[in-house]
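Our collaborator T.R. sent over the components below with a one-line note: 'Predict the complex.' Nothing else. No constraints on interfaces, no templates requested, no preferences about which chain binds where. So this is a plain run: every listed entity goes in together, and whatever single assembly comes back becomes the starting point for the next discussion.
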Amino acid sequence: MAATVSTERVIDAPVGTGPRSGNGFPKNGGGRFGKDGEPLQFSPSRYRIAAWVVIAGIVMLFTALISSYIVRSASGNDWVPIAMPKVLWLSTSLILLSSVTMEISRRSLKALNDAGYGRWLIVTVVLGLGFLGSQLMAWRQLVRQGVYIASNPHSSFFYLFTAAHGVHLLGGLVALSFLLLRTTKKRDTAEGELRRVGAADAGTIYWHFMDGLWIGLFLLLFFWR
Amino acid sequence: MAEATHDAVHQHEPPKSFIRKYIFSLDHKVIGIQYILLALSAVVVGMLMSVLMRVNLSWPGTHIKIMETLFPTGAPGGVMSPEFYLSLVTMHGTIMVFFVLTTAPQGGFGNYFLPIQIGAEDMAFPFLNMMSFWVTFVGFLVLLLAIFAEGNATVGAWFTKLGEALGSPGAWAGGSGTVGPIGGWTGYAPLSALGKVAGPGQGAGVNLWIISIAIFCVGSLLGALNFITTLLNMRTRGMTLMRMPLTCWAWFTTAVLALLSFPVLLGGGILLLLDRIAGTSFFIPGNLYVSGALQPLHTGGSPLLWQHLFWFFGHPEVYIAILPGMGATSHILSTFARKPIFGYRAMVFAIFAIGMLGFFVWGHHMFISGMSPYSAIAFSVLTLSIGVPSAIKTFNWIGTLWGARIRFTTPMLFAIGFVSLFVAGGITGLVLGQTSLDFFFHDTYFVTAHFHLVMGVASIFGMFAATYFWFPKMFGRMMNESLGKFHFWITFIGVYAIFVPFHAMGMLGMPRRYANFGEYEFLKNSHSLVLFVTIAAIITVAVQIVFYFNFFWSMFKGKRATDNPWEATTLEWTTATPPPHDNFAGQIPAVYRGPYEFSVPGAPKDFMMQNEPEAAEVAATLGDTSGNGGNGQH
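Returned assembly:
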């Protein structure tokens, strides 16, 4: 039978049976067809695949930059490590915390707790903005000390890494804001639900990656010699 | 029910207004044609530049009136200065590699046909698809601006002012009189990182060149994201990975290469730009003596780092250019040989192997950079090992043609031409891949011959084949066969006449990128060769007018095409010509068989469309011939 878009409220389906079940790729290999061969109007895997593809691209960008960092640290005798701005500990705590709240938010959605999903999403966005503010404070601290991008190679890389990470994090914040806008829009159809869950999964994957990326950069900049 | 039909397949309604339909369209077919038109425009600029270079090499000191008018500083009295020549080299390379060889095969034909061939209504993210084209288009405009920033005094003055406002006057100095930046398409540091002090053509043009490529990277990444997601997520029922046309495998592999290599170029470009405008020293070493002066502001950077970053991108880029051509060639050879492609599985693995190996061979562009001989050997061995999958592909192409009743249509001729050029150009890769030989051939015309044949002309032949093959589906009319065949033969002979002598010049030791060879005693006798190449180049370029005429004339006046004029098997030929907005008018096809089932024994006709269910039953009664092993010759 041809699949028509279901108009029943799948939100009320028991956990584990509706479109919210599962935590990643469905068993059918990511295609557009359900297990029984019924065509899906929309496959939520699309968003998850896209999230991983985007992450692969960003990983390559930072691989290039980090390789440059390692090569450059050995290529001249002008490498003077800058003192770590203390506010970076605050940044790091904020982004770690935001990863936790994002996960709570995603799990709330899976547990059919829409209100919790929206609430924790807001907390995550606020923490993300806090992180960016804290990074800007780190820049200001350095500028006050007279350390600029051209001061020495380590400071060049510090500004570059924080800026490149910040831009990508900003992209993540835009994505989360879209999710947030969607929470106010009631989508009772199966497709609406699928889209919402897929997008929330993709956003969470990306956000965790941003968290992990910052931790990596932080360790590289100040704990790797 | 068998057919996967359902009502709500429209992802978006067909747009009504002209702007939404043809300019800012979300339809992958329109976007694909936009990419092709962009490449068709860019290639004219790149080709004219190559003709100018040839003219200068053959008749140094020629007065060209229009050059005097356009570039009074770079070509005083209409005579090209060496700097002007170098900037032509740079812009020819950049335009051709990025805006022709990367846009048309992937962004153009890939965009148009990948969704249709896998049975999808559109790309996974139509909006990103639209963005990817327009971002690329802006990148092209910025590159054209680089020409005027260096070549035009007025535009140059704007950038000089901008530089003063930004506090980096050296980096943004404009109006040096060249046609854009100097540095080759590889833009080697440290000269590319210094700004005006490094000489003419090193000011605003280089900044714009870097920015243009960075924008291009972003556009390509958006495209790659779409290609990969679409192919993994939106295949129709029955379209398993091993039932995909080889074109889809090629576009997919290309998208993976783009995804993994463009970010590296983007990263390198950011570092280079920072060196130029923010005073950092990523690529600029200390105690650098340039233009008769010590460059005091910089310390400790590594120029070789740029080469590593650039070529880590640069080598996969070569495959980004040619893999779609390989896919199209496989597809077209099989169709007109009326035989299944020989060794489908091997073709898939070979294309993926070539793509992946491409990431481990960038060092062969840097053999003379003073790298450790041990690294050089590793790079050399890996480079030569690409010969294995390449040979598999060539063997299988010949196996496909072997004993076939070939239909010599224009697309088929170009596809066979592709195989010829791929072999002719690829074989010298084995020469250049050996360190000892590369020491002699590096930076000679031998290298120019190699990459023009294999990456340039072969890819272009793949695209010509694709154009003649898919034109009926795209525009609903056939291209003229006689004009097409004329175009093929002159172009085919022409490109060999241009690039075979290049090998000889390289063996003579003629260095590439030189504006003039008159001063060199050992090259005095090669002038006739240079002249021959120039004449061949002018004829070959002139013949392309026939192609352009055929293209645009056929669009309106060509013979009307049927839905499946070539009697081909894949899904794009199952739908209307040209395809409706959602590709299949709501009737998403299901797939029952592999992509190249020609001359199946016992079948009622010599080709089986991928969506023909009856044939599955036919095959079942005869035993399983639905695979790809049978060659259908009895």
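Summary for T.R.: The radius of gyration of chain A is 21 Å.
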